[in-house]
Specification:
Distance between the termini: 13 Å
Oligomer: single chain
Bound molecules: flavin mononucleotide
CATH class: Alpha Beta
Strand content: 25-35%
CATH topology: Rossmann fold
Radius of gyration: 14 Å
Shape: globular
Length: about 140
Amino acid sequence: MDNIGVVYATKTQHSRKLAEAIAQELGVTAKNITENTQPEETRLLFIVGGIYGGKCNPDLLAYAEKLDPSLVKKAAIVTSSVSVSNRSQKELRELLTKKGVDVVGEISCAGSFLFVKLTHPNKADIDAITHAAKELAANAFS
Ligand SMILES: Cc1cc2nc3c(=O)[nH]c(=O)nc-3n(C[C@H](O)[C@H](O)[C@H](O)COP(=O)(O)O)c2cc1C
């Protein structure tokens, strides 16, 4: 699919795994935000990150704050966290929306913390997230 980007921030590599799986499914390359401070011009940017102490990854928020909105038409937020109730990134969504980036959806995946859900994200989680991302991308352009 054309003009799709996938970026991630990660502390324990879950978001990298998810981002790489989504990128592979969509035929693009996932980029770490620490090495790519601005995306290429893109119609839909998947932004992948976890939740820490109930909050978004601060590096991801800083990335969103600096994001040039003329480069990104739409965004989809992908979240991995232990708690189901935390599986959205309100702050990130608000930052993007304020910039005029249309957030077309949020999808989520189980992560792990200490001994909670230590085996996540597993293959089933990754399959589910790539499927959801593909659907979201198809709907974003329809
Ligand atoms: C220090 C730390 C704090 C965390 N705090 C939360 C939390 O408050 N709520 C939650 O649901 N998950 C929490 N988690 C789980 C992570 O959100 C989850 O494992 C996520 O997949 C991590 O993504 P990453 O590996 O890309 O950094 C925490 C993980 C760590 C390491």
